[in-house]
Amino acid sequence: MSIAQINRYIQDKLISEGLDRVSAVDAAKWLDRAGLLADSETRPGLPLRNYLRDGLIVGSHQQANNRWFIYRK
Predict the structure, then answer these.
(1) What is the pLDDT of residues 8-20, one digit of tens each?
(2) Domain hosting residue 27, numbered range
(3) Over the stretch 37-65, which tens digit does the pLDDT of each residue have?
(4) What is the 8-class DSSP label of residue 1?
(5) How many domains would you assign to the chain?
(6) What is the pTM of this model?
(7) Residue 40 and residue 14: Cα distance in Å, rounded?
(8) Are 58 and 73 in contact (CB under 8 A)?
(9) How far apart (Å, rounded) are the C-alpha atoms in residues 19 and 73?
(10) 1-4 — which CB contacts under 8 Å span 24+ positions?
(11) Which of 65, 41, 30 is nearest to 57 (CA)?
């Protein structure tokens, strides 16, 4: 698993699903199912949110309510 693979997978999935954005929790589910990033059972989306906080995910944006979304680029 690499950040490049994660970014590519999320962007490709957004395109294939016809979506403009996805929540971090839903993107984390995609990544877990694809075997690219294991999700946390107790805090869904946490491993991905850690990457989001570090600025490593393409198209990421944190809203005023602190929820993360990833936008199609």
Answers:
(1) 999 999 999 999 9
(2) 3-71
(3) 999 999 999 999 999 999 999 999 999 99
(4) -
(5) 1
(6) 0.93
(7) 22
(8) yes
(9) 11
(10) 1/36, 1/37, 3/51, 3/56, 3/57
(11) 30
